[in-house]
UniProtKB/TrEMBL annotation:
Species lineage: Bacteria, Bacillati, Bacillota, Bacilli, Bacillales
Residue numbers binding ATP: R62, N66, S147, S155, R199, Y239
Organism: Salibacterium salarium
Protein known as: Threonylcarbamoyl-AMP synthase
YrdC-like domain span: 17-203
Top EC group: transferase
Amino acid sequence: HTQFWSVDKLDGEETLSPAITEAGLCISEGETVAFPTETVYGLGADATNDNAVDKVFEAKGRPGDNPLIVHIGSVEQWGDLASVIPEMAQTLADSFWPGPLTLIVPKKQTVSEKVTAGLSSVAVRMPDHAVARALINAAGVPVAAPSANRSGRPSPTKAEHVLYDLDGRIAGIIDGGDAGFGLESTVVDCTGEKAVILRPGGITREQIEAVLGTLNVLESGKTSDSDAPKAPGMKYRHYAPSSPLLLVDNEMEEVIAKERLAGKKIGVLAVDENKTKWEPLVDLFIPLGSVDNLSDIAAHLYHHLRLADESKVDVILCETFSKSGVGSAIMNRLEKAASGS
Ligand code: TXA
Ligand code: MG
């Protein structure tokens, strides 16, 4: 049985909420609790308790070689996790914390190998969400939290997504309404000479370059096999709908015709502006939002992928986006969902 708490996002006041106190107690007692953040919902456990961390991997069905992000409620907690804080990491934290940015830094010996999957580094993030930080503070420990989905499903941006994937498998869920940004945090490796963006997300490459300087930022991009383990999670097929997803650049009409000829039931994900063009030609049309508002498209993308997945069409066709700014994170998630098609 999974406990369900509802909390309004009233700035600051939720620290006093009995639901947060109860949920925090749950975490400090070694249980797992899902909670909202400004990116997606996370599944939290006491990062200092191996048994609790095991429960996270088990509930998600997550491979044990994929390390977790440790969430902190205040910057001071960082020192308990990092053996050193590289200058670029400090600069990035000063600029973007609390916020959708995860920093990989050398770990302290005391940080569990379960959390870091045996790596010598640890991923740390201070979320910009009052409920998330109140929960971490109520728990009184750093909180290890991957996205609160079953492994291979789109990350949850609503409490109902978490329920759908994990009801009965976790101790509790705090419903704090829709997550904000809608895609996961940017992950930046700060253990080398230059900052390496391992996963594009809520903080854009352009924003990172603006504080570190363009020459000090690398994108992991097409990771060769040799450096693949740098971001272990990126090698798994994520966010995958059960029907095949195809990304279509310019030839939507031709692709629709071809799939139609093959007798397929077709779903299309496209910007609102193209609704009148494609809707009459297909079985299901899901408007992603306006082409002029990429943040809005990001915020609802996982919900739309879940809708497409539940619709039982034979093939899902999705428009592509430019990879600048927020578009980089959107395209990264779509390319993973499509696994190259
Ligand atoms: O926005 C987010 O980051 C959300 C919310 C809940 O904070 N969390 C999230 O966690 O997306 P997860 O577990 O779904 O993704 C964490 C990513 C994975 O790709 C993992 O491999 C990578 O971060 N990661 C974690 N620790 C790492 C480390 N020490 N070195 C390299 N990559 C690491
Ligand atoms: Mg995830």
